[in-house]
Amino acid sequence: MQLSVIILNYKVRYFLEQCVLSVQEALSAIDAEIIVVDNNSDDDSCLMMKNRFPDVTLIENKENSGFPKGNNIGVAQAKGKYICILNPDTVVAEDTFVKVLAFAEEKENLGIIGCKLIDGTGNFLPESKRGTPTPWVAFTKIFGLYKIFPNQRFFNQYYAQHLSENQTGKVDILVGAFMLMQRKLYLEVGGFDEDCFMYADDIDLSYSVLQKQRNNYYFHETSVIHYKGESTVKDEKYMRRFQEAMEFFYQKHFKKSLFFSVFIKVGIFLFSFVKMFQGKHRSNPLPESYVFVSSNENLRSQLSSVLKNKVDFLDFKKEKMVNSSLVSRGKRVEIILDNQYVSFKKCIEILETLRHKSVTFKILPKKANFIIGSNSKNERGEMIKIE
User: Fold this and answer.
1) Quick one: pLDDT at residue 125?
2) Which of these, 63, 67, 287, 338, lies nearest to 179 by C-alpha position?
């Protein structure tokens, strides 16, 4: 078997459904398997998986064992030459795995491959590629020096700015939302360190692979949606765990002095404090107009009723290009993409092409009764049932 895709879920039932659907379609031409590990969700995630995806391997944990242990449990059952650690709040294109696996097969001394991640509004997520957060690199991140001196490499290593978002190349650290590597290597480095509950686990795994003299790569030729705000509510508990996670990483990998310890403690506190308030809920203004991109005009009236607003129709059979004329200056528009007719790859392209502060997006997944999306990388997304 060539690939095992491991998806660790915790209470994101509707995002999980869309994710698994996109992964199934991306694996249609690959000898592969999907393994969903559920960390004791109290929604109907597991029931949905059994009903809609009976052929997918489902592991039901009896407790929330954390990100590292949950993924390690999934990898322990994997059979693929390669594994892909994938968040449930992601959407992959139909050719994502074909492209990434072809790239992997070309490389010698391969470590981990990450890809271009975008949020639910089509904006690039800079954490798709990062440098090792040494004390100096952490300092430039915490105090925003990488923004003040964007063209000075000395200050911009945190987000690996030696590479643009549209340039493939070697990086140190990749994000746990999408990590593809050989299963043998994952087991060789011990997988995710279970002493770290979450947040520093992807940094630690990436760094452990580098210590094996392997090369990690950022691969820009496929884009994956990562709604991001779904996996974690950034509250006080988040702040404490983020502090603990970064302290874990530094204790494990770096020799410390008293000054170093104090600096890291203060820096982590400031950084996590800011992150916490980035995630506080802010009410977003409702769209002033809606556009339904589909070939099923009958659904338009149903959506109008649910959304309590007029919904314009764009027939995707007649108009293959969804262009910027849909975006009116100053007018808030929501574009709803019918996945029955618009592929996941095309959905992703539309998000990237039409990204604008006044435009939001929802996807109606194939054979689903809901539309889903996210208007901010720092907030939970929105699911609306249309039955």
Assistant:
1) 95
2) 67
